[in-house]
Amino acid sequence: MKISRRSTKAILFLQQIFILSAFGLLTIQNGNLDFMAIAMGVALCVFNLLQYNILKAAFRHMDRFVLLAAQFLWSVGIIVIYRINPEYAFKQGIILFGSTIVSVIVMLVIRKSHDFGKWNWLFMLLAIALLGSTLILSKTIGGAKNWIDLKIFSFQPSEFAKILFIMGSAYFLSTREKLFSFFPYILFTGICVILLVAAKELGTGLLLCGTFLILFFAATGRIFLTLIGVGVFGVGAYASYHIFSHVRTRVEVWLDPWSSYNDQGYQIVQGLMALASGGLFGVGLGNGMPNVIPASHTDYIFSVIGEEFGILFAAVVIVFYLVFIVRGMLIALNAENIYDALLVFGCTCMLSLQGFIIIGGVIKLIPLTGITLPFISYGGSSLLSSMIQLGIIEGVAIKNGKKEEKELRMMGADVL
Amino acid sequence: MKNQQRFRTNMRFSLGFFVLLFIVLIVYMGYSVIKNGTTWYATPYNPRIANARKNINGGTIYDRNGIALAWSEGTTRKYHQTQSIRRACSHVVGDIYGKTIGAETTFAKYLYGLDSNISVLLDQILSGEEAGGQGQDITLTIDAQLSDYIYKKMDGRRGSVVVLNYRTGEILASVSILTFDPNTVNTDELEESALVDRATMGRYPPGSIMKIVTASAAVDQGLDLTYTCTGSDTIGGQLVTCTKEHGTQNLEEAFVNSCNTYFANLSVKLGGSTLKKQAEKFSFNRTFDYSDITLYRSNFEISSELGDIAWAGIGQYNDLITPMHAALMAATIANNGVMPEPKLLKEVGGSGLSRWSNGKSVKVLSEKTASIIKNMMGKVVQSGTGTSAGISGAAVYGKTGTAEYMEDGEIKNHSWFVGFMNEEHPYALAVLFEGAGYGSAYAAPVAADIFEYLLG
Amino acid sequence: MLDSIYKIMATGMRFWFLFLAILIVILLIAVSRKEYRERKAVLGEIGQYIGYLEIVGGLPEAQGTRIGIASENTIGSGRGADIVIRHPSVQRVHAMIYMKDRALILSPLTKGVTQINGRRANNAYEVHTGDVITFGDVSAKVFIRPELERIV
Fold first, then answer.
1. Is this model's pTM higher than 0.80 or not?
2. ipTM at complex level
3. What is the pLDDT of residues B331-372, one digit of tens each?
4. Which of A402, B94, B139, C46 is at 20 to 30 A from A114, Cα to Cα?
5. Which helix (H) or strand (E) holds B406?
6. Binary contact (C20, A10; C-beta < 8 A)
7. Chain C residue with Cα closest to A68
8. How many Å apart are CA A281 and CA A289, to the nearest integer?
């Protein structure tokens, strides 16, 4: 009996065609021939193909579809970033390359390990330290203190604190049964969220809350307690609305950005105008006006996609994130133990929720918060963090695959 | 083992939750962009429009009879040579500096070729022009000569006149004074409200024209009150007065006389929530999202005080309405109870692009109720407060309104008239003069002049 | 001029990009679903297996091959058999191996040689993990899933 792998050549091929045609188009942007564009396109294609094939060969049980989805997302990202500013695209490319290496290391580590035991306490302290440091050492960008400039490059500690949070959560939720023993974990979550809200990083704070509630529910299945958690979250949100003026501003701007157009509302209004300008099919790559939108290459990149490619395409991008979620869940469902499952589930949850929060903010479904669109937004820390999470997901997938293979072998089946 | 099973179930549940979240995301995005796209886009804040104006030759804006109201020579925008026509149509046409929201902004995507129509671009390239360098011409529904006539009849008095075709919703004229001259709008020193289009953005207390709504509510409820007017009445501690003692009346008579005390009592009898529901049927408190015009919200509130309900029913208290909405109200009665969707754009590029989607018209009243009100409005012009709106040669239906308001501690009156003619000339209108006085004295006669003009 | 060409190309290519994206996503979903289903089917079936037979002798080209045992199997050289062993010494329908009351029973069906651990088996006989069954000249070792093994 055999299990065969279905061919993904067509998907790979089409993705590279997409990249090449986009960069081909960008080559004749601005009225003169820009050979760097097509060079970038070819480089990206080569990178994607190499990465896919090498990883497939090295890790037979890796989940190819998650990787393909991620590849498409970051490729679209680089295309749009290049259109906005080629320099950023180069930087993003380099970061992509570097973070792939990191993610491979993560995969290697995860596939062999069990939970980290006592190390988790260190992880949690480290997370709190990272978040605390943003409060103390950072410089202010756009009203939110989240960047730390280390002269060579700047990095966003909260992006990595997120991952440590997931690891800590997975550990606690898989090894503890009694409610009381959860207490240090809940305290940890509370501290993290407060630190984030104080540092005006509402997006990441929301993200942690959401992930916490979902993980908690999944692990313990206690609906009642989860609802209490939601209630606490609601009370917290309400309280912060009254205590913090920056929270109030965000909500007001969300409800009516046009009245504060000259100040806070500017970004949202421009984003909406870009989406409206794009309509169903977009205005065409390079025909839009991303320059009037603040953070168009980072947080607000979705509006540029909406303007130039149209909302139908943007909907497809959202579906890609959905594919990510579904595949991630399947891996989690197949995991050997609850720790692994929670690890993958946490990462998948976090990436998807992040996408939801920022896209929701751009289309004015929920108040805008400052977080990046995973894999697509420009940003070293963001991409690196997403890649690490990808590595974790793949790592567990490999672990699952190995276990499955063993079982299949034992029963006389052949895995190709 | 069992724990793992439950865990798996919980995860599956979360998966469903996420899928739901993302579906909501996609649907909301699609819905809000499709619904609000044009509204979001056509604002003066949009740098794309400003950018396009610099680089692209804008198309020509024609009125329904082919009179060119605005066109580009190179990158300069030129307007009609007659000043009165310019000023009459200026709010509808708009300016190119983003100071007003008129056709220049609302239809910028056609005028400046932002529509991304491939065949148009190809045509341009093939004929040697720069692709996307020339916009398309558009034809509006307004009649420039009618607007000019109205502008002259208004004689510089502040206010607004809106004329609609109540069958198709086409806006034939929308004149607002104070106004501006698009040729010199950037350099003139204008009074603050000269750039405000009173027709769509001016919100005034409706006064007695609100009785159309109140009366229709009574007809719907089958309530024909008999009441004797003694010239004044106190309701809920608030004094309501009439211009004279009207005596015993039924609904029709009170409507024709525009008797305040009758309608005040009627409002109380109907009840605040019934009245509010009826007003909301007429699109009060509704955020209008018409694609061709930006129409501000009209307001209708009630409170628990009977006195407030009484005043709300006769168009005071916190009632507010725009002249455009008032014209739409008249159009509703004329159009068998259906409020048409107001349209400003007739054609794009001479392609006869058919844009008559009546998707946004609203059924407000039953045909029967509408015809009863229409009848009453006919009597208003024949023998009631609106006789000065009557003309020989055609039947006219209408309602006068005298809306009180406070200015500098003084009580003043806005002069209103809304009305329409019969099918052969399917026109509805609203006339408003700010602070002028009685509706019958100022607004109605101008309405008569307009009806005469429309008669041909 | 290039500017105009670019504008037209970009405007035209919007449909191309959308088309590609939709195609990619549909393929991605379709292929991953197919693979998932297949995997699930196989795993499901494997899950049904009671254990396996591992060829330990008599068939050099299949030495070490494991063949899953379902709850009821016919063994023989004929095509219709559940477990096919191609060897001249193996009869077309040689024996049956099946699960009964948590015991794995081997039942010879022909006059051909069937041995358990070297001793001739003429009737139905219970087998356990580690036993070597010989069909004709071909020997196979029995492995039963530990959780199903009856504690004797």
1. no
2. 0.90
3. 999 999 999 999 998 888 765 555 555 678 899 999 999 999
4. C46
5. strand B396-407
6. no
7. C28
8. 16
